[in-house]
Design a protein that fits this description.
The structure is a single chain. About 45% of the residues lie in helices and about 10% in strands. The chain is α/β, with parallel strands linked by helices. α5 packs across α13. The longest helix has about 35 residues. The N terminus and C terminus are likely disordered.
């Protein structure tokens, strides 16, 4: 049976930050208090006695103590709901942990140089199904508000720990990438900016329990960064071969990530053609080291990320078909792209925004207006849609206060920039903290973000989004006001 949240201690409570702030001003809690407050199982004891005077210098400490006390009182008042939220959150976490055990077992089988058996797969998949059933049963007993808070609290924890939102699409991509590890096949993740391509690859690499080896591919990259080079050894007055990151990973049986693989010199990337076809136990001959052979150790895996090669992403090269053919290519899209542009709520993007606006108990920050947050999610989704979708499918026409789509044979997207999921998360989380100057989450904040989508000297993106905002009855011109 779950114990009281107060009996567990207040380590996760935001009030702890107030206590640390008080301590930084020289005010210590009395002996026996883990915090400035105690819970005896039935009532809340007041803050530990502080030696505060009428000196104005104590005003800040007094305010901090009052804020901390009000936080604990608030938690005590809603403890019943909070217990339900935490119980349901634990079910979400248990389901994720069962999936994590499956992925971990598959990776470790590969590192041990053996196949992951079908018996093992059935065992772990049964554990996942049982966890899913427990979650479904718990959700059926909870009302919508509790379910929403619990999912938000779970998402918030995952964002803090992994910087990822584990929706169905992401879980499917991870399972495919882990499967590629067991099959010894490289993975290329392609998609627009700000969609966590690199973070997904890093998460899968973390299953190896090793520091991720990430190579940021750039235009002036030399092959010795990947493979290696001869280096003078002054002590022995001779030249020795110094391994590059890719060769070292191959020999040790470790994963490596080539970030933005089509941003670099493709003549260098061409050196990968031979390596990408090799599996554990195969040998690769290194010309830089007089043709010496290196055996590929179990666990060696290549991940790569790329933006599309188009006018939207300058200096990206079209990968040679011979290189692309060696990868299993995973396309990552912005969330909710299969929904109607205006008729449906972008649920996944909404989850992402809420996860950035709440604490570990599913409570929305006092600095976030949920109505404004809904508007921000909607507008962010529209910018992503118009940025990533060819104009022939997304061109809009404004007539007599009506908005309709027009088919137009134009392969260029309508917008030249967008509010990416990454920008959405950063904006909401910064404002939700409430401890940064001039970070207010209001219509003016959204308006400034839309203005930032334009390049110098242009107002095309901003003007288009202003028209769309008015069609949605959102007035962003009201400085300091709230969106309707």
């Amino acid at each position: 049976m779950r114990t009281s949240i107060f009996e567990q201690g207040l380590a996760q409570c935001p009030v702890l930050e107030y206590c640390r702030a008080l301590q930084s001003y020289g005010y210590e809690p009395s002996e026996g208090h883990s915090c400035f407050f105690e819970w005896d199982g039935g009532s809340l004891k007041p803050p530990a006695h502080l030696q505060l005077t009428d000196d104005p210098a104590d005003d800040l400490a007094r305010s901090l103590a009052q804020d901390a006390e009000s936080r604990v009182v608030e938690l005590a008042a809603c403890e019943g709901d909070t217990e339900k939220v935490l119980a349901l959150k634990d079910c979400h976490k248990d389901l994720f942990n069962q999936r994590l055990k499956l992925w971990q077992a598959m990776v470790w089988a590969t590192r041990e140089g053996r196949e992951f058996t079908d018996t093992e797969l059935r065992h772990y998949e049964q554990r996942v199904r049982e966890a899913q059933e427990r979650l479904d049963a718990e959700e059926s007993r909870a009302d919508e508000a509790i379910r929403r808070r619990a999912l938000g609290a779970y998402d918030s924890d995952q964002m803090d720990e992994h910087r990822l939102l584990f929706d169905e699409a992401l879980i499917a991509d991870i399972q495919r990438m882990v499967g590629n590890i067991t099959n010894g096949r490289p993975t290329l993740v392609v998609g627009d900016k700000g969609i966590a391509k690199t973070e997904v690859a890093k998460f899968v690499m973390s299953l190896f329990k090793l520091p991720p080896k990430v190579i940021s591919v750039k235009g002036d990259m030399m092959s010795d960064e990947l493979i290696g080079k001869m280096k003078h050894d002054g002590a022995r007055n001779t030249f020795v071969f110094q391994e590059g990151i890719l060769l070292s990973a191959m020999r040790k049986g470790e994963p490596v990530l080539l970030d933005e693989i089509n941003f670099g010199d493709q003549t260098i990337i061409a050196r990968l053609q031979e390596i990408l076809l090799r599996h554990a136990g195969d040998q690769v001959f290194i010309q830089e080291n007089d043709g010496e052979a290196v055996e590929v150790a179990p666990g060696f895996t290549v991940f790569a990320t790329a933006n599309e090669a188009s006018a939207r992403y300058r200096h990206r090269e079209v990968l040679d078909p011979a290189i692309r053919d060696r990868f299993d290519i995973i396309i990552r899209n912005y969330p909710d792209m299969d929904l109607d542009l205006f008729a449906h709520e972008p649920k996944t993007l909404g989850r992402l925004a809420r996860a950035s606006a709440i604490d570990g108990w599913g409570r929305t920050s006092a600095y976030i207006d949920e109505d404004v947050l809904e508007v921000f999610v909607r507008l962010s989704y529209i910018t992503q849609y118009l940025y990533s979708t060819p104009a022939k499918d997304a061109t809009l026409e404004f007539t007599e206060d009506h908005l309709k789509s027009v088919v137009k044979e134009d392969l260029q997207p309508l917008l030249t920039d967008c509010i990416t999921p990454r920008l959405l998360v950063n904006t909401v989380s910064d404002c939700a903290r409430g401890n940064l100057p001039d970070r207010r989450f209001d219509a003016a904040c959204i308006d400034r973000l839309l203005q930032s989508l334009d390049q110098a000297g242009s107002k095309y993106n901003y003007d288009l989004m202003k028209q769309i905002s008015l069609m949605l009855d959102i007035d962003l011109a009201f400085e300091g006001g709230s969106a309707s």
